[in-house]
Amino acid sequence: MAKIPMKTPLVEMDGDEMTRIIWKMIKDILLIPYVDLKTEYYDLGLEYRNETNDQVTFDSAEATKKYGVAVKCATITPNAARMTEYDLKEMWKSPNGTIRAILDGTVFRTPIIVKGITPYIPTWTKPITIARHAYGDVYKNTEMQVTEGSKCELVCTDKDGNETRQLIHDFNGTDGIIQGLHNTDKSISSFARSCFNFALDTKQDLWFATKDTISKKYDHRFKDIFAEIFENEYKEKFDAAGIEYFYTLIDDAVARVVRSDGGYIWACKNYDGDVMSDMVATAYGSLAMMTSVLVSPEGVYEYEAAHGTVQRHYYKYLKGETTSTNSVATLFAWTGALRKRGELDGLTELSDFADKLEKATIQTIEEGVMTGDLYLLSSLENKQKVDTETFLKEVAVRLEKLL
Ligand code: NAP
Ligand code: MG
Q1: Which helix (H) or strand (E) holds 12?
Q2: Which of 72, 125, 146, 317 is least surrounded by CB atoms within 10 angstroms?
Q3: Looking at domain 1-108+292-403, what is its CATH homologous superfamily?
Q4: CA of 326, closest atom in ligand 1
Q5: Number of the ligand closest to the Cα of 277
């Protein structure tokens, strides 16, 4: 059979440890035999990041801007232990942080749902995608511990030197704490556009919630910016696509999410997204079944798995043991990227291939063949635990039948 052609290359960002091993297996077993794979390769493995003083990370992000679609393997974010392990020149920053800052994107995380693994909230039969605003608020705060008798004010000096002051609190009779937060119209607008675009892209409703009744300026600004951009730029497109933008209060949103059956995107402010994405991921069962895509307001996409490099499995692998590491989220990063590339380049065959590969993967698990993490969760009766490579080969068998 002739290989499926590609036009524009994907930006391929290789990574670290167990996921780097899985990366190669996926390419060798499920991609290269079927697709005339075109990629522009960037090695974001820690060794090469160190060698290039992290320049390779910046280059890969610029390439993503140029081509529009990237697929990324999980990478190590160095800490003190990694400094010694890899003999690093510097404690390089998180590649994801660097790429996100350059693309100004929003991260959307979606669980992969399979029969046999029931979410802790059994009504969640469709995925809930969480979009977290990854700038500002408490993550870029200024805070102080203050002593009894202190008077704390918020002071803003505008560009002409005019001061506006507002009392925060008079600390009479007790010590206390204060905190200064900010966000920018620019960042909130980018966040809103990424969310509206992704909703259109995936034909799902978009939910957004803040606490605007209590925070009448700060949270209300988020609400207003979303509403304005929606009315001016997206309302007609949403109507045409038959999807809805729904705004409510954060506590009402939480209650509705729990009662829902899923199938929508939930846009969250930074802190809400941090907390809720862990809640949602856990409720769906496994971090290894969670995909992630960074979407820029200009419509640039970077796909990856939500989990890390699975270090513990890698050390076993280095000792010569075969591991049963789950490759599904990394595989879906590839299918997501290939499908998007197909859409952008008008290559239906490529997008169809991505759909079929996902179908074959889900079918494999639903027929009882799975890695150890899922084996522990699955309620299927005839289930079988296999190692990483065997799983991918089983997917290939089913893929061949679909092609
Ligand atoms: P992790 O790699 O996500 O793994 C944590 C644990 O979760 C594993 O030990 C394993 O549990 C389970 N797990 C995660 N993914 C799995 C998979 N695909 N298959 C089977 N089990 C899986 O997190 P970590 O160990 O905290 O971090 C390791 C490295 O990854 C760190 O250096 C961190 O900086 C990096 N990291 C990168 C990214 C990214 O690039 N996006 C994200 C997070 C972390 P068991 O050991 O119990 O089997
Ligand atoms: Mg968190």
Answers
A1: strand 10-14
A2: 125
A3: Isopropylmalate Dehydrogenase (3.40.718.10)
A4: 19
A5: 2
